[in-house]
Write a structure and sequence with these properties.
The protein is an alpha/beta fold and about 250 residues long. The protein has two domains: about 1-80 and about 165-250, P-loop containing nucleotide triphosphate hydrolases (Rossmann fold); about 90-165, no CATH class. The chain has nine helices and ten strands. It has a six-stranded mixed beta sheet, sandwiched between helices. A four-stranded antiparallel beta sheet has the order 2-1-4-5, covered by helices on one side. The chain is globular, with a radius of gyration of 19 Å. The mean pLDDT is about 90. It binds adenosine-5'-triphosphate. InterPro entries: AAA+_ATPase (IPR003593), ABC_AA/LPS_Transport (IPR051120), ABC_transporter-like_ATP-bd (IPR003439), BCA_ABC_TP_C (IPR032823), P-loop_NTPase (IPR027417). GO terms for molecular function: ATP binding; ATP hydrolysis activity. Keywords: ATP-binding, Cell membrane, Membrane, Nucleotide-binding, Transport. This is Branched-chain amino acid transport system ATP-binding protein.
Length: about 250
């Protein structure tokens, strides 16, 4: 059974059908990319998945549970975590403090039975593990807002990992990055799939075609088609949608 399913989701803004009966599923350990031209409805769909926006129709299921009506924080507790297009770090705090805050926010059950001193050690250990996981262990003492853009996005991913998600939503993680930073983010996402599924919204087609197991193409609010990277790359309808817009030319 799929880890995550969207079933017949509909969202209207006045007369505009921004999400038009969208269904998609993500399997355990899968990187599923959502692509589509500007205004196709990607952000609107992701906002409904994360709980920022209520759908007019349809259901969102995680691990068999209907989470359609749950607020964002309850979805996070159920295993759905999200990184935003705009990084949500605390810029004046150190990398370590950002991680500690995130770990503490989700530590309720894991450290509850420990004495205060052990509790604190547990938080520091968890923050260090997160930093190592994303390659920021050398920057723990640095002020988050002073980090290069790519490292700030990486920290944002680490913050989203603090809740131990089953499904991670990544909303344009490569936006504004140079080639080296994008490369680092691709490698990081590669390592995540061992532990979780990833729903990736991204305009960088090079990254999408390198990472995705499957791709759903959204056009005018509906899923035009879904398939493997090869199926999507060779689909004439998809090529027509992207002609003169973003390019689908990637190194196979
Ligand atoms: N709150 C809103 N009220 C009215 N219309 C909206 C609202 N949010 C989005 N839309 C419209 O819904 C459509 C889908 O927008 P959305 O931002 O979801 O697309 P997108 O695929 O994420 O685009 P981009 O790639 O540019 O971020 C657009 O026509 C947009 O103008």
């Amino acid at each position: 059974m799929s880890l995550f399913q969207v079933q017949g989701l509909v969202k209207r803004f006045g007369g505009l059908l921004a999400t038009d009966h969208v269904s998609l599923s993500v399997a355990h350990g899968e990187v599923h990319a959502l692509i589509g031209p500007n205004g196709a409805g990607k952000t609107t769909l992701v906002n409904q998945i994360s709980g920022l926006l209520a759908p007019d129709e349809g259901r969102v299921l995680l691990d068999g549970a209907d989470i359609t009506a749950l607020p964002m924080h309850r979805r996070v507790a159920q295993g759905l975590s999200r990184c935003f297009q705009v990084t949500r770090i605390f810029p004046k705090q150190s990398v370590r403090d950002n991680l500690l805050l995130a770990v503490q926010a989700h530590s309720g059950s894991s450290f509850r039975f420990l004495k205060p001193r052990s509790h604190e050690c547990g938080l520091y250990e968890a923050a260090n593990r997160l930093a190592e996981r994303v390659g920021l262990q050398g920057q723990l003492g640095e002020i988050a807002g002073a980090l290069p853009h790519g490292a700030q996005r990486t920290l944002d991913v680490a913050l989203a990992l603090a809740s131990g998600p089953k499904l991670l939503l990544l909303d344009e993680p490569m936006a504004g990055m140079g080639p080296d930073e994008s490369q680092h983010m691709v490698q990081l996402i590669e390592t995540l799939r061992q532990d979780m599924a990833v729903l990736l919204i991204e305009h960088d087609m090079e990254a999408v075609f390198r990472l995705a197991d499957r791709i759903s193409v959204l056009v005018y609010g509906r899923v035009l088609t879904a398939g493997t990277p090869d199926e999507i790359r060779n689909n004439p309808e998809v090529q027509a949608v992207y002609l003169g817009n973003e390019t689908l030319e990637t190194t196979p």
